[in-house]
């Protein structure tokens, strides 16, 4: 028995990530729609302001309606949270390079001021820089992830897919 199985990581991943995605695939979702939804979930999930990604995904789902799969968007948003946290500083630095401003010193005191609401103009400007870095990166990330996810979801649908949600032959009513 592996370490991750003993502490319950694999069963948790199975229940919270794999099972919901497999249910979507088995219901006959289209691979391109799933690929777009997964790419959208990851792209919005790495937005550099913690705690806002669920709202962003909810707004995107509401705006896109049937063009995306809500479960896939939310599951992938949830899965990339560690990636979101690790990309805050690169987005900040990229935004600083784009605007030509100096580097903001990242200290525990700056983080404390943001949390307590005593943030200075420099801290707020650094948040804007991080958002700018994400905003410039997001379309490229969305396109690249979409291209990577299409073959993955085609394989999943071919292998594990169920009955398509819209049958090709009309149903005859008696």
From TrEMBL:
Coiled coil: none
Pfam families: DUF2062 (PF09835)
Keyword line: Membrane, Transmembrane, Transmembrane helix
Organism domain of life: Eukaryota
Transmembrane segments: 34-64, 71-92, 127-149
This protein's record includes keyword DNA repair: no
Domain DUF2062 stretches: 22-159
Identification of the protein by name: DUF2062 domain-containing protein
Species whose genome carries this gene: Oryza punctata
Taxonomic lineage of the native organism: Eukaryota, Viridiplantae, Streptophyta, Embryophyta, Tracheophyta
């Amino acid at each position: 028995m592996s370490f991750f199985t003993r502490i319950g990581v694999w069963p948790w991943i199975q229940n919270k990530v794999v099972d919901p995605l497999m249910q979507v695939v088995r219901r006959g979702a289209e691979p391109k729609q799933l690929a777009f939804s997964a790419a959208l979930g990851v792209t919005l999930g790495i937005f550099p302001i913690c705690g806002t990604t669920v709202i962003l995904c909810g707004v995107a789902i509401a705006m896109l309606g049937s063009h995306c799969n809500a479960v896939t968007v939310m599951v992938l948003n949830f899965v990339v949270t560690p990636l979101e946290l690790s990309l805050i500083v690169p987005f900040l630095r990229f935004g600083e390079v784009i605007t030509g401003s100096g580097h903001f010193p990242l200290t525990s005191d700056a983080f404390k001021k943001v949390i307590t609401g005593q943030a200075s103009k420099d801290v707020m400007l650094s948040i804007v820089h991080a958002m700018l870095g994400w905003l410039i990166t997001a379309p490229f990330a969305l396109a690249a992830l979409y291209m990577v996810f299409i073959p993955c979801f085609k394989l999943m649908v071919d292998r594990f897919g169920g009955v398509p949600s819209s049958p090709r032959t009309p149903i005859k009513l008696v």
